[in-house]
């Protein structure tokens, strides 16, 4: 099979529908570490890819999308969260609005806030959600879409989104870190509402899994 360059593959992807097809779990591209971005795409092509990823994230709808989820194995992700949730949910989860931003070559480390566990889902694992314990605060190091260095501390729900998307770039899915007994369908409104409480403590009792703050 002839080798197709990354540029040609991205051009072909962007020649298709404006909302890109999302790769589902089981595709090896979601399980390989993505390649660091180092100018493999021209600036205009990178800008078009980012715009298409943004449109795809909005259409899903989702609060983050990593390039491997559209079949592009580069360390690149987009995140944005309008955080349109009830006040009690916002308070419990630290779900504050997160303006649109691009993460290039992101990496994170624990910034010392302990672990917090909540339900989360993934556009590449449709129909399910599960509880994942994650760092409450992380130090994010990355570049933005213009190559400027990013080094900042992030907490609350934005920290969860950063961890989820960065994990994608290492070939890790949220299910790898999840409490598997918490796994719940999101296919019906009834199922979604069952575990829509601000925290996952009731689900932990009913389904039989541990929360990081319970002993
Ligand atoms: Zn995901």
The span between the termini is: 56 Å
Largest sheet geometry: 5 strands, antiparallel
Strand order of the largest sheet: 1-2-3-6-7
* β-sheet strand percentage: 25-35%
| Distinct small-molecule ligands in the complex | zinc ion
Which shape, going by the Cα principal axes?
Answer: globular
Q: Could you spell the SSE succession in H and E letters? A: HHEEHEEEEEHEHH
- Helix percentage: 25-40%
- The parts where pLDDT drops under 50 for at least 5 residues are none
- At the fourth CATH level, what is the homologous superfamily? Peptide deformylase
Count of alpha/pi helices:
6
CATH topology, anyone?
Peptide Deformylase
Number of strands: 8
Outline the structure in words.
It is a single chain. This protein has 215 residues and is α+β, with helices and mostly antiparallel strands. The protein has one domain (19-207): Peptide deformylase (Peptide Deformylase), CATH 3.90.45.10. It is 28% helix and 27% strand. The chain contains six helices and eight strands, in the order ααββαβββββαβαα. It has helices at residues 6-14, 43-59, 87-93, 156-169, 189-194, 201-207, and strands spanning 64-66, 76-81, 98-110, 115-120, 128-135, 137-143, 149-155, 178-185. It has a five-stranded antiparallel sheet, with helices on both faces. It has a three-stranded antiparallel sheet with strand order 4-5-8. A hairpin with a 7-residue loop joins strand 4 and strand 5 (128-135). The termini are far apart. The model has no long low-confidence stretch (mean pLDDT 96). The structure holds zinc ion (ZN). The site of zinc ion has 5 residues, from helix 4.
